[in-house]
Fold each of these.
Amino acid sequence: MRNNWFCLQKRSSSRLRWFVVACIALGLNCFGCQETNSNRICLVSSLPRTGVSRQVSDEVVRGIRLAIEEVRARVGRFTLEYRDLDNSASVSGQWTSEGEAANARLAVQDPDVMAYIGTLNSGAARVSMPILNYADLLMVSPANTAVGLTKPGLGIPGEPDVYQPSGRLNYMRVVPADDLQGPLAADWAFGRGVRRVFVIDDAGIYGQGVASLFADRCREKGMEVLAHVSIDPQAAEFKSFVGSVMSADPDLVYFGGSARTKGGQLARDLVSAESEAILLVSDGCRTKAFLDAAGATSLEGRCFATSAGLSPQQSDCSEIMFLKRYQQKYGTCPSNAAIHGYEAARLAIRAIADVGRKDRRAIVESAFASRVDDGVLGAWSIDENGDTTLQEVSVSVVRNGTFEHEEVVPAAGIGKKNVSR
């Protein structure tokens, strides 16, 4: 779940490097100016705590807190403290570069902070990654899916090296990247008999990237891509645009974007125009905010969403310990966001416990060497680039006013795509 980062796809790699240099300069100001507490280790998260992304962030934080409760807030001889940091502006309800840089700077300056859980948005990660990297601070994302954050040659020129000024890796994520989500969404559509698709994105780096990968895979599978259009996320409505979609008569309409970039309004206008096409949206729309904006009742059984990684079956809530604990505490089965928040925090906690001291570099290396055999959604580890070895995408359908798990699409046959712009 990410958003447009200063229209980054239009910027040269040299301008990207200047931005990263500025982030480092800002982030490392006063590095090391706080005193350490010998008996405390701190885990921080940086997420948007206001606006349309708050619901997803709340779920991530619930997962983190359960991971901390699981070890009774202790790691060896240390008391484990948690800080829930906000990288959003209260006025806009969106993450800001200033907010994310401030959070990264706060973490770097505190010698008791040994891990940073974040970010929700890939654009925000691009701000904090070089700051945290220079300080060798472990960064684990429960949600970033932009391919360039970890995969050489698949993103903007200069990625991911530009985020690694120290020359060492410190960033990892527990969700698969968009080079799986887009193509596997197309495989799912083909398997349902879809042959004519109309592809829409929100003009952001995430939306355009995942939509382009979806469209490319559709062509590989022999489906007809009727059009690939970017909408203006500042528009109030899309009724006239929906007319052109209807005229094309697609079997399926695909939207790459989020609730924040008007995915819900687009869905509402498609329904109002009495479109009979299947609506398939990327994981940025798999939120209550999207359903509220679109009108959940009108999407019943006809709107599907992909999400990186596996989703738990509803029946699993009584069988898997974490899911059972989550349901007992919060009265509902956890979402993917909660599960990935839990797994991100647990990976960090186990790496800290393995090292047994406040040594940021050693903790990073321990996390990279970890293998999780008792993961909520199966066994996994982190590869040499910082990516999870889990290689599946889940599909959910709107049912009873919410997204419910439908099926899992495996990654067999998917090749890597170049999404540089």
Amino acid sequence: MRKAILASVLSLLACVGSGFAQDKLLPPVATPPVTVAQPVIADGTWSAGVSNAPRGWVAFDYLNWWISPGPIGVPLVTTGNPASPTGGAIGDPSTVVLFGNSNVNFGPLQGGRLSMGYWFDCEAKCGIEASAFLLATQRNTFIASSDAGGNPLLALPFFTPGGVAGRTLISSPAVPQTGSVLVGMSTSLWGADVNAVWNCYRDCACSIDLLAGFRYYNLHETLGLGANTAADPTATRIPFNADFFFTSKINTLASGFDYFSTRNQFFGGQIGARAAWHDGPCSAEILGMLAMGRTARSLYANGASISSTTTTISKFTTAGVRVSSITTATQTATVGGFYTNPNNIGTFDSCGFSVVPQVEFKLGYDVTRNLRVTIGYDAMYWTNVLRPGNQISNVIGAGPLNNGSNVWVNGFNAGLQYRW
């Protein structure tokens, strides 16, 4: 009996010792760490978790954009054959249009855009963003002038209400008459928008956001025309008697201007979507927006002209010696220039429905976790706007016009974005 109990105790101790020995010889195997894919948030930023990612961002872009050329609906400045009594008038075979009846290119418009945004929640699901841009005023100028002899012929063509073509002579060697014409145009554009942002999809490489908000655009353009002319014709000889004769000479100085200005202001709601892709420090983003709303349009027209006429009557002997002379001068000021008149001078307001689609594409590179450099392309189309060159009529006495047109704006951007 005692031997049996002793054998059982020895067997139990042997099993316990074997277990301790195994614990010393075979340590537990460590579980390898699990790698979790980094999430992408709205602007492509990523971190170990969305809750630790930057929630705000601010960006500035340099803009190099182009606006569609400004249309000029009618011929404004012409030339022609001085020997023709209608040279420079529309319909004369020798008439050539120097300016007008075409589109005027403004070239690149330089400017800047400031954007900022913020996520309201740690999961980067709901946020707000806003942006504003400004393009510097760009100008285009046309100048034509004659030499001291009146060459070349310069004219401003017009039509009577009955449709008969005519011309206002600015210079001509046939008179002789000297003069010059200057046409200046300008364009400027700025805008702003604010949007609510909702993230509808996100994985380790892609993100899709939906946007809805308000957009405002302001397009201001001008067209001004000014002309100066001086006529110095040869004196007319008037026979009197065998001893004397008279001469009559009329010198005319005239100048005038026309000014047309249009302002278009768009107020509308917009919706859109943005897709972002991210791979390491590189990112790409495409944004599409559609805005619809009202464009408030304003046309301002003004003009005036002034002329000064000097008439000199002289008495000469038949030998050519001037005995006496009488000079009279008159000056006349007129409301209205060459293409403006009391019927179309003033401010005329109207409004219309406009659609404004917009797309933007950007490539980015993360210099640091918080700083990104970007380069991209923007395009925008705006319907139903007024442009000054389309509001000019060359019919004498015509009233105000309300000719709508569409505007393309597109170009490149380059900038910096900071996230925190």
